[in-house]
Amino acid sequence: MKEMDQSAIKFTLWLEFEEVESGNWDVENEFCNIHVDLEDGRHYGLNVWTYQFLETAVKMDQGNGESLNGLYQIPPDLFVKELTRNCIELTVRDLLKRGNLEEVLNSSVLSKQKR
Predict the structure, then answer these.
(1) Beta-bridge partner residues of 48
(2) CA-to-CA distance for 48 and 50, rounded, in angstroms?
(3) Residue 47 in 3-state DSSP?
(4) Backbone phi and psi for residue 89, each to the nearest 5 degrees, phi listed first
(5) Distance between CA 75 and CA 63 in Å, rounded?
(6) Are 50 and 29 in contact (CB under 8 A)?
(7) Is the dihedral of CA 95, 44, 103, 58 positive or negative?
(8) Neighbour-count burial for 51-70, b at 16+ CB within 10 Å, e otherwise
(9) Alpha helices, H only, 1-115
(10) What's the pTM?
(11) How many helices, marked H, and strands, marked E, lie in the chain?
(12) Which residues contact 71 (CB under 8 A, 6 or more apart)?
């Protein structure tokens, strides 16, 4: 896969945890939605979990009987170490350096052109 010049990639981020209950998130054990808007009009909506939240989700399902009592999890679009602007911005920048998000992330991630 052809790598792009990192300095040429321009995007904006909307982070749910900055808009909803700002400062009231467990940055290491939580999930959120983010929006990535590229200069060329592509828009991505991603479901992001921390690594630790995967374990939490399994335990929740074991307690409530969902997903065959935690036997499986349907993964999010992206896992990160922590829910901070810095972590997510660095992650998105690195992913875009690798290629289009719909190519480097799982197949549920689709680009939608803004109208």
Answers:
(1) 32, 78
(2) 7
(3) strand
(4) -65, -45
(5) 19
(6) yes
(7) positive
(8) ebbbeebbeebeeeeeeeeb
(9) 16-19, 51-64, 66-70, 85-98, 101-104
(10) 0.82
(11) 5, 5
(12) none
pLDDT tens for each residue of 46-100 = 999 999 999 999 999 999 999 999 999 999 999 999 999 999 999 999 999 999 9
Tokens matching residue 95: 């992913």
Q: Which amino acid is at 37?
A: D
Residue-wise pLDDT for 7-36, tens only, equals 568 999 999 999 997 778 899 999 999 999
Among the listed residues 109, 111, 98, 72, the one whose alpha carbon sits nearest the alpha carbon of residue 9: 98
> Measured between alpha carbons, how far is 99 from 42 in angstroms, rounded to an integer?
13
Written as one letter, the residue type at 2 is K
The token pair at 86 is: 């810095």
